[in-house]
Write a structure and sequence with these properties.
heterodimer, A: 2 domains, 5-stranded parallel sheet, disordered C terminus, B: about 280 residues, 1 helix
Chain lengths: ~400, ~280
Amino acid sequence: MRRLLRAAGRTVPLVAALAAVAASPAGARLGGQQADTQVAPTAPRPASAVTTADQQASLRDRIADVRRDPNAVPLPPTNEITVGPRSVPAGTRVAGPIATAKGRLDVYGEVAGDAIAIDGDVVVHPGAVVGGNAFSVGGRVRAEGLVRGEIRTIQGKVGPVPTAPAASAADTGHALKLALGWLAMLIVVGLGVLVAAGEYLDGVVEALEESFSRAFLAGVAGQLAILPVVVLAVVALAITLLGILLIPFAVVAYALAVAGLVMLGFLAAAQVTGRALRPVPKGAIISARGAALRGLVIGITAYLLLWIVAAAFTWQPLAGAILRTIALCVTWVAATAGLGAALLSRAGTRRVGEVTPAALPEPEDLSWMTPTPVTGVVAARRPTPAASVKGPR
Amino acid sequence: MIGYVLAARLAASATAALLLATPLSAQSWRTLDVARQLHDSGTYTVTVQYGAGRLALHATESPLLYDMRLRYDAERTEPVHSFSPGSRTIRLGVRKQHVRLRDDENPAELQVDLADRVPLDLSLELGAVEADLDLSRLRLNDLQVESGASEATLRFDSPNPEQMRSMRLDVGAASLKAVRLANANTRNIQVNAGVGTVDLDLGGDWRQDIALNVEVAVGGVRVHVPSDVGVRVEMRKVLASFEHDGLVKRGGAYFSDNWDSAPYKLSIRTGTTLGKFELDRR
């Protein structure tokens, strides 16, 4: 009897116990042993039983997974983990932690540390004491006795928390491709605008350079007005019955116009930014068009560089999100100011300082310019202030 | 002012949620059950923190101090279950949580059962949570609920055996419904909501007068009060309406006709902007 009681806390070598698991249905024997656990703790299975390497490897992997799970309690060394049912008889005190795999752990006596069952239940019977935690992986913990620590169970996947680096790397690569694609596309579009609509772009650039803050405010106002304007246009068209037919075309045309203005404005902002970042060196011989192209490419690259850096940090959610937010804010400011400049300059058709015909002063008297024959009659004389004051003599 | 603070908090929460939002790629759903037996009868301070998902909180009759059952995505959630016997504090829930934008198929769940045998100072720190907070039978000394964007129901189906010092409910964008609040056994209830609707049922077992302070930045407040309770309402409103259900204005406040004779009195101070305050006396 004394020898049996001493065996209660004895560990079963993993390899030997694996043989027992493979040789016999443990569950069938479990009940009988439980009923008599006070005098007959679970004995190790015969080591001669046949087991496969796969089973050993599987169990070792399982234990390793549990060991790496962040919510598992620390396991004892693998060679101290028994396999199959195990019990601690009443009146005995076992130094913990004790652990068993693929079997139930019945505690009738006292475990000084943790009581652990992997793929099995932990049952702390009335009067029993577990000084540490009662922990089960894939099973349950039934605590009818005293558990001084935590009663913990984990189910489902067990093991270290996956970080999924491959997926993140793929996402990062995709984001980088996207950002680089935008860079290439914007440069191509910028070249096209410079060639085909360079004058308009210059007009927007001038408006932007005249007053950035004014352009920015105009851009904000323009953005706020985008939706109301289209709604008003639709309503106005709807009032006239014939106009209803034009609504789809008007909406599409409006969207294209807005997109064009935004693009023109952003390119202008990029050109201004590029010139500011890398001014043309003094003394350098470069044409106006060349300087515009240089500024445009540098500016677009500068803005897209923010997005490329943000894309490069896609694998890190927090840093990536912060960098994307910064890139978004900077791009929005540039696009807004550019849109405002495009609106103020009427898409570059109105130059800074250009005076409209309506603003010209009324000619006081152009009658002296009336064409008259040179000979035969007296040529008209332009009235002069002096002549007006003196009057006819 | 509080409303603006809450609105700012809401904006910050929304921004944080957006920044932390992650694509629906890999998932690693796990289940963790953690409990601890109850070994004494002293007061414990319990904090439950939960970012997103479903939360159910109840009292338990079993001899457990707490019992937490958590279903979580291990890639985005780190469970927390700490117990400090020295300071008698417990912290349950999740430590960090990346919010999913669409996750209806596999919602995260947290169920917490707390001992009904010991006094508790309970604090709930919630994010975007669908919460069922059944505080019936719990012995609460103090209750604090902070929530970003929740749809929460808070119930006191039975009287709180403890005299609660205060109850404070701070919610950002919320649909908050509190049922039988008189059973909370407290003299002070403070409700701050940024945007949303707040429905407060002050039914239950009245044991003392209650001072209710409700601040809602944008939204509606509905307060249900038993007809035998005297009601006094002080209201600050901007672009808001007030349905006072037969109250009479005296001085700067509205009074119910039984204010002087009622055995118990409810004093409401409320402020709302762009909303509606309704008083329902049954």
